[in-house]
Amino acid sequence: MPGSPSYRVVVIGAGFGGIGMGIALRRAGIDDFVIVDKCDGPGGTWRDNTYPGAACDVPAHLYSFSFRPGRWSGRFPPQREILAYLCDLAEENGLDPHLRPGSGVTACRFDEGRARWDVTLADGSTIQAGAVVSAVGQLNRPALPDIAGRGDFTGPSWHSARWDHGTGLAGLRVAVVGTGASAIQFVPEVAKTAAHVDVYQRTPPYVLPKTDRRYGGAEQSFYDRFPVVRKADRLRIFLYGELLTSGFVLSPKLLAGPMQLWRRQLNSQIADPALRAKCVPDYVMGCKRVLFSNDWYPALARPNVDLVTEPIERIAADGMVTADGITRHADAIIYGTGFQTLDFLAPMAVTGLRGRRLDQTWHEGAEAYLGISVAGFPNFFMLYGPNTNLGGNSILYMLEGQIRYVAAALRALESEGLGWIDVRPEVQQAFSTWVSASSRTSVWESGCHNWYTTDSGRNTNNWPDHTFLYRHRVRRFDLGRYRAMPKPPVPAGVGRA
Ligand SMILES: Cc1cc2nc3c(=O)[nH]c(=O)nc-3n(C[C@H](O)[C@H](O)[C@H](O)COP(=O)(O)OP(=O)(O)OC[C@H]3O[C@@H](n4cnc5c(N)ncnc54)[C@H](O)[C@@H]3O)c2cc1C
Prior knowledge:
- The protein is an alpha/beta fold.
- It contains 13 helices and 20 strands.
- The chain is 29% helix and 18% strand.
- It is globular.
- Flavin-adenine dinucleotide binds at residues 12-18, 36-39, 44-45, 49, 54, 56-58, 63, 104-105, 135-137, 139-140, 182, 348, 383-384, 394-395.
């Protein structure tokens, strides 16, 4: 709206994507931007997920920006170190004055006449921008299960991404719903002090050994002194990830090695054949996210932990009732049930050319050219958008490629004197056709229930090829793939914002 604060770029989200974008903007000499976030500070995933045992599962030498290595306490540092790394990055790069926390975006509307986006915040105020970069991630809206009676439970309950640190679990009977990436990190920690833990499992995950170890001071100094060694480790981790990816996108037969590792770990860590049988997945490795842990199976084998595979029928005031009619008492319930991943960008209402709504455009599932641009939504770019999640490598590798691409697009807008650019529909269509064809033969569309596919089984979240090929595709911004419109004339007597 005319009169509201105006920026060249509004970045939505202050996680790795938003912070990385801010750094790239500053390096490109663009200072006229703001990074808004609905929460109270930077960090995204690493601000929200404070559960015991929270850590990355891609080694931090790769799960960090290539241009700024971290000084990590170990191969898989805990959440607080990753959060501190992100906050340091923001400070070192002078981003703090650009950050505007507590500013959830509810709507973005493009005004073709002014070639500007009007961005509406939760408090009703509006800011204007020449371009919008959405960096809202794929994993920040917790998903709670639709189980009858969930509201009837009288004890404390919470989602793993909203951990209630005020409620101690020592000596309590705890019910954990879900056995995904977060649960396998917090259950071993909770089980150490809880009186009893019932873990409710719908489908078992494949759990591979985690090559975790601490870095001593001497080793950290060694990495600092010889950065090439850290880079070599980065490359090694990347190549291992690409090897896993080969199995996911070319043929599961290539996963014979990881399958052997998984089976050996399961057999050596769980002696009870009945419990072991409950831990054997009935789907192809990779269809659901492959997990890494050395203490998941030992935790399940503890005398104070039960793995319950009977479906939950309902939640009662004091516990869980399973389909076999058994009620298991619980003092607290923790939902390790993941995130709402399919309705990208929700709940923001994004309106592009001729009043077109993005959620309606995506009614059969999200899609975007390179996961970044959608035809009909000019000067609107996404980081970690549709089909850019990974099953076997570091998201930061994807984000770095996207950030560079978007920075180049913004530079092109300026250097070519353009009002807006909009990806050509035929370019997006050709890309989407390729994504669909490649996804069809990937493990993600092999029939299991996972968070990457829509109800109709279409993969909208994962990149369906090797990761390096994504970076190859985004290596340069090609203006020819976009419709380009000149800047609208400035009305007499009005300065250009
Ligand atoms: C527990 C956990 C562990 C993970 N471990 C790994 C790992 O080891 N390796 C890996 O590659 N990936 C991992 N991931 C995936 C992780 O999400 C990405 O690696 C990365 O952190 C994504 O960064 P992002 O900035 O794109 O999104 P996020 O970190 O999710 O940040 C998005 C930001 O946008 C803000 N936001 C959202 N909507 C709005 C709105 N409407 N208005 C304003 N602000 C908004 C949010 O508050 C948030 O701060 C993990 C995810 C989780 C949940």
